[in-house]
Write a sequence for this structure.
């Protein structure tokens, strides 16, 4: 009898905690890089895109990793291409509008966000491509679609719960399945640094 009562109490505790949001923390600090400070492999990839617009290079430092990022506009869309510190391509992100996602994908993402947040507001949506360098180069240059690369969606969300309001970055599969979640943390500005 005691075993069943104890199991019931455990289940009630888990049920009451299920709507709390558990996430890793994400902190990013971006600083500008000059073109001559950028790895040759990264420069070659961007040059082969023939962007034609101004390219801004950044060193992006996170809690656990450092990367190099090229930001530019192509076909009136904001692009962000991320490389590791030696210039290997990691992913390509293209900013898009929430309403541009297909309805079944929006519905699936909204379902997951509704489980985690009492109220939420979408702040930023990016489609993310990763895979073979040459295939991704062709994808960006021609728009040609194949099954030879991975498509994900990165969504930045303002999440409101009874106890707090926070920004989170979600990563979803191309079918709308939640893959990862990170709470965006900001540098503590209350401590002055001299």
């Amino acid at each position: 009898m005691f075993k069943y009562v104890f199991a019931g109490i455990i289940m009630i505790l888990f049920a009451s905690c299920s709507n709390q949001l558990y996430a890793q923390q994400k902190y990013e600090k971006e600083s500008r890089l000059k073109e001559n400070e950028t790895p040759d492999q990264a420069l070659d990839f961007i040059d082969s895109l023939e962007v034609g617009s101004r390219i801004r290079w950044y060193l992006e430092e996170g809690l656990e990793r450092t990367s190099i990022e090229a930001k530019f506009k192509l076909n009136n869309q904001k692009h962000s291409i991320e490389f590791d510190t030696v210039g290997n391509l990691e992913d390509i992100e293209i900013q898009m509008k929430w309403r541009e996602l297909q309805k079944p994908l929006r519905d699936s993402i909204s379902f997951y966000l509704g489980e985690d947040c009492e109220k939420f507001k979408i702040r930023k949506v990016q489609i993310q491509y990763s895979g073979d360098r040459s295939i991704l180069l062709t994808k960006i240059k021609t728009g040609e679609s194949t099954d030879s690369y991975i498509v994900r969606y990165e969504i930045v969300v303002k999440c409101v719960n009874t106890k707090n309001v926070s920004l989170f970055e979600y990563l979803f599969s191309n079918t709308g399945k939640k893959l990862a979640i990170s709470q965006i943390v900001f540098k503590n500005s209350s401590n002055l640094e001299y």
Remarks:
- The two ends are 64 Å apart (CA to CA).
- The chain is about 25% helix and 40% strand.
- Residues 2-17 form the longest helix (16 residues).
- Residues 83 and 89 are 4 Å apart (CA to CA).
